[in-house]
Design a protein that fits this description.
Layout (H helix, E strand, L loop, with lengths): L25 E5 L3 H13 L3 E5 L5 H8 L3 E5 L7 H10 L8 E5 L3 H11 L3 E4 L4 H15 L4
Helix pairs in contact: 1-5
Length: about 150
């Protein structure tokens, strides 16, 4: 049974210290679908990420300034502004231009890849029905863009 002692060196008598996993980093997820936001947040938090979600592009600037994410996962199809347009705006901004942006869409992979290249995104991920596949894809992009080995 794990001990509640917050100091692993003081665990004794064969008790296993079971700490909360260290946070891997912060990811801002921007998507107009509450279902996608919830599923993505829950899946990434289970992997140790801190996840900030925005359902509207209007909130993005404030979230970036407040939370300073390590990576932005950006939906392509949103009301009022297209994801690729928001990507270009953020990449040109002084406060977010250095944050990796990964386009996130259910479109065909070739189309997402092309849009990422044209609009300055650092990567792309196809939305999938499997939480495991989404997490694997996000982890691969995060390692490549934020925490290269």
């Amino acid at each position: 049974m794990p001990t509640t002692d917050p100091h692993p060196l003081t665990a004794s008598r064969g008790e296993v210290y079971d700490p909360v996993p260290m946070e891997k980093g912060t990811i801002l997820v921007v998507d107009d679908s509450p279902l996608v936001l919830e599923m993505t947040r829950e899946s990434l938090e289970a992997e140790g990420f801190r996840v900030v979600t925005n359902s509207s592009w209007v909130e993005v600037n404030a979230s970036i300034r407040q939370h300073r994410p390590d990576m932005i996962l950006l939906d392509l199809v949103m009301p009022s502004i297209r994801g690729e347009s928001l990507c270009e705006i953020l990449k040109r901004s002084a406060f977010a231009g250095d944050i990796p942006i990964v386009l996130f869409s259910a479109r065909e992979e070739e189309e997402i890849r092309a849009l990422a290249g044209v609009h300055g995104a650092d990567g792309w991920i196809k939305k999938r029905l499997s939480r495991k596949e989404i997490v694997e894809d996000v982890l691969a992009q995060f390692r490549r863009l934020v925490r290269p080995s």
